[in-house]
Please model this.
Amino acid sequence: MSDECVFCQIAAGEIPAQVLLEDEEAIVFHDLNPQAPTHLLVIPRRHVESTGTLETEDGELAGHLLLTAARAARQAGIHDSGYRVVANTGNEGGQTVPHLHLHVLGGRPMSWPPG
Ligand code: 5GP
Ligand code: ZN
Model:
């Protein structure tokens, strides 16, 4: 855990969040500033900075996060209509919280390309 990391603090229960589901490895909660009718964040409990710092041995965790995103989408009722999974990475990727997270966005049509 990184003491100054807001998502580590959410994982530790030190900052409240609207949690949809959780297991030993991951937590899914609603984004504070939703960009779609459904906007979830999937995070590993363990502090990993971004997709760019995942190591080969993190492959199982990375797969688990994707599977958890799909599970969360089903639970939130956006599986049938479709949704988008996004991992902003680094400065130009638009990452503002340096703890790996997958955005799961749904409930409206998504445009492409992203801004
Ligand atoms: P990023 O910009 O790094 O891809 O995404 C970070 C996301 O975390 C943003 O969508 C932002 O609204 C969300 N966020 C930042 N701080 C908090 C918080 O304390 N609680 C929750 N639920 N979401 C947060
Ligand atoms: Zn963290």
Observations:
- The mean pLDDT is 97.
- The chain is about 20% helix and 20% strand.
